[in-house]
Amino acid sequence: MGKGAIIAISTKQKINTDSLTVAELVGVHDALPMIMWSRYFIISQGYKVVDNIIHQDNQSAMLLEKNGRSSCGRKTRALNMRYFSTTDKIKSGFMRVLHCPTAKMLGDFFTKPTQGTLFHTFRNLIMNPSDQYS
């Protein structure tokens, strides 16, 4: 599909969470409808979707997304079951979750202040500017 992002979103979460792990899980859950829509839209345009990858920089959130309730600990045991719909999508082969180091997490461009080389790298990946502006 080229270089730019097919879809990028930055929204405020609808609930307050008490840990970063739960916040990551809720964030993926909130984005799941847009992820599904994007996949179906690309397929309906005649393109073949080989892989649907969610990049995650939080190892604990990845375990919860992959294993569901079986990975719950003391702080996450009261988490609402609806946030484990991601687990169903992963088990059905609809998508995969892969680790991405925080320094390479493209989504952070929208939510965290970046400067210098990191800003230019993320900007170029997202906007795909011509050579005269990079």
TrEMBL record:
Domain of life: Eukaryota
CDD domains the UniProt entry points to: RNase_HI_RT_Ty1
The protein's name: Reverse transcriptase Ty1/copia-type domain-containing protein
Species this chain originates from: Cylindrotheca closterium
Lineage, broadest ranks: Eukaryota, Sar, Stramenopiles, Ochrophyta, Bacillariophyta
